[in-house]
């Protein structure tokens, strides 16, 4: 599995970010080909101290090639272009292959 993580610093207008993200951006994300699962949260916490990010998003793909193809698809390009409409604080995008652990 390959994971994509987006970390969002505090935006200029948190209420606009939340509303736009849920009603407009996430429906675009859901259309990305090859997307296996996704999740997000506005309740980011840090230990100790205050949270360094306002929101977080995680997406899962079968592998890096599937993620790359999804991001380069017309749907993926729409998602990337849409970020400027709500993320006035910018966005940090990370991706990595997931290594499984055992409990």
From TrEMBL:
Residues 11-88 form the EthD domain. Signal peptide: none annotated. Coiled coil: none annotated. InterPro entries: Dimeric_a/b-barrel (IPR011008), EthD_dom (IPR009799). One of its GO terms (molecular function) is oxidoreductase activity. NCBIfam families: EthD family reductase. This is Ethyl tert-butyl ether degradation EthD. It comes from Amycolatopsis vancoresmycina DSM 44592.
């Amino acid at each position: 599995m390959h994971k994509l993580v987006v970390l969002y610093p505090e935006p200029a207008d948190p209420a606009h970010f939340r509303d736009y993200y849920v009603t407009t951006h996430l429906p675009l994300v859901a259309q990305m080909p090859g997307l296996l699962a996704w999740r997000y949260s506005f309740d980011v916490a840090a230990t100790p101290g205050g949270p360094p990010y306002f929101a977080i998003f995680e997406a899962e793909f079968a592998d890096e090639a599937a993620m790359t193809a999804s991001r380069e698809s017309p749907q993926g390009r729409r998602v990337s272009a849409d970020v400027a409409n709500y993320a006035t604080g910018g966005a940090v995008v990370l991706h990595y292959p997931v290594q499984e652990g055992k409990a």
